[in-house]
Write a structure and sequence with these properties.
The chain is an alpha/beta fold. It is built from 7 helices and 19 strands. Strands 1, 2, 5, 6, 7, 8 and 19 form a 7-stranded mixed beta sheet that branches. A 5-stranded parallel beta sheet has the order 10-17-11-12-13. A 3-stranded antiparallel beta sheet has the order 14-15-16. The longest helix is centred in the C-terminal third of the chain and has 21 residues. Bound molecules: NADPH dihydro-nicotinamide-adenine-dinucleotide phosphate. The site of NADPH dihydro-nicotinamide-adenine-dinucleotide phosphate has 17 residues, from helix 5.
């Protein structure tokens, strides 16, 4: 069993940024990088909207830069997952799948969220080659082209209206005869001339050799099959925050996201802070995750100092 002042769980932009700040503040943080070090950006190809990379950067390359920067200031990175936590008493206890038990005076949770996928084979194969789960990240690459968006919630409404400003034609596939999205978002969708809602429609397959070339859809009422010639396929059926291991320990909202005190990274447990997509279902950007990672490190450092622990 080893004891640490600060343990950071998660290795996306939020976790690494928290580590950079905490390490430079002399907290000697330990970061549990998990099974998918680097988080969602490891699945991304080009990132063109992260400030500072004027020519863009590949997602994995950027996360390597984050990691090296965190290590440069003395962050200890362990390639293990947290499998059990006890936040009911201090110091907090964290067990890992590397069979380690760690204790920490403060914890930053930055485990992110994962996009939900339809589960089609070609969805995985063509990921990054027309298939995406983030319009803000990848929409720009399909300027003037045609795209399909799948989903009927606020995310789908938002992604499809965002894309309609860039793409020539956007098809929104809604599997039922109504959308789950808020009224105002639905109205926006229905009012957009180059955004066509295909009701009662599901995805059969995504076609294309090296890149998305068409999407095969089926009207579930009539059984009719159609191939939509598009170059992009955006899945917008929701995200799953990675909070399973914190169930019952931290307050979460109805969708499982960790609740933080507005304007801060404080969670329902004093000494535990949350940053990045695990507590943000609105912005979900690398730069906003990094921003809240910085906030979490500053909150943790000040909290530890106030406790006389740093
Ligand atoms: P939701 O769970 O609200 O909606 C998911 C949608 O995807 C539903 O319409 C669902 O269909 C559809 N869906 C699920 N699985 C499949 C599938 N396999 N094939 C086809 N369609 C599928 O998720 P959201 O991400 O849209 O929203 C999550 C939360 O975040 C909500 O509370 C939302 O209000 C909030 N949010 C708010 C925003 C804002 O205010 N600006 C922006 C984005 C999200 P069905 O309805 O048939 O189940």
């Amino acid at each position: 069993m080893s004891h640490h002042k600060l343990l950071i769980i998660g290795s996306g932009p939020a976790g690494y940024t928290a580590a950079i700040y905490a390490a430079r503040a002399g907290l000697q943080p330990v970061l549990l990088a998990g099974m998918q070090p680097g988080g969602q950006l490891m699945l991304t190809t080009d990132v063109e909207n992260y400030p500072g990379y004027k020519n863009g950067v590949k997602g994995p390359e950027m996360m390597e830069d984050f990691r090296l920067q965190a290590e440069r200031f003395g962050t200890e990175i362990r390639y293990e997952n947290a499998v059990e936590v006890d936040f009911s008493q201090r110091p907090f206890t964290i067990k890992t799948d590397g069979e380690a038990t760690l204790t920490a005076d403060a914890v930053i949770v930055a485990t992110g969220a994962s996009a939900k996928w339809l589960g089609l084979e070609n969805e995985t194969r063509l990921y990054g080659a027309g298939v995406s789960a983030c319009a803000v990240c990848d929409g720009f690459f399909y300027k003037g082209k045609d795209a399909v968006v799948v989903g009927g919630g606020d995310t789908a409404a938002e992604e499809s209206t965002y894309l309609s400003k860039l793409c020539r034609q956007v098809y929104l596939l809604v599997r039922r005869g109504e959308m789950r999205a808020s009224k105002i978002m639905q109205e926006r969708v229905l009012k957009t001339p180059n955004l066509k809602v295909l009701w009662h429609t599901e995805t059969v397959d995504i076609l294309g050799e090296n890149h998305v070339e068409a999407v095969r859809v089926r009207n579930v009422q009539t059984g009719e099959i159609t191939d939509l010639p598009v170059q992009a396929f955006f899945v917008a059926i929701g995200h799953q925050p990675n909070t399973e291991v914190f169930k019952g320990q931290l307050q979460t909202d109805a969708n499982g996201y960790i609740v933080t005190r507005p304007g801060s990274t404080y969670t329902s447990v004093e000494g535990v802070f949350a940053a990045g997509d695990v507590q943000d279902h609105v912005y979900r950007q690398a730069v906003t995750a990094a921003g809240t990672g910085c906030m979490a490190a500053l909150d943790a450092e000040r909290w530890l100092a106030a406790q006389g622990l740093h």
